[in-house]
Amino acid sequence: MIARPSRNVARVVFKRLQHSAAESASTAKASGFNNKFNFNINPPNVHEYWNYRNASVLLAVIPVYLGVGYVAKYLGANLDGFEGLIEFADNDQLKTLKFGEPQTK
Predict the structure, then answer these.
(1) How far is CA 4 from CA 10, 11, 39, 83, in A?
(2) Which of 9, 10, 18, 105 has the fewest CB atoms within 10 Å, i.e. the most exposed one?
């Protein structure tokens, strides 16, 4: 006796969901797609994007990227870096400044 109402509820829910799905499908077909911005609605396949030209451009960029990294490493090798920032923060002139007071030069 308990199983009977749950079957009826399931049937009503199923019919309701089926009706709403059919209704949304019919409205989607009626409205259609308005291509007012001229999107390419027939793009080429994915494998056509990756061709020899794109691969050669990528392979040409890799040495440039490595070269820029090497130059940056060479230029930054003799800089103080983090130790210079700590030394500047430990400067006695910064310790004498109080919060909210103007800085005099």
Answers:
(1) 10, 11, 53, 78
(2) 105
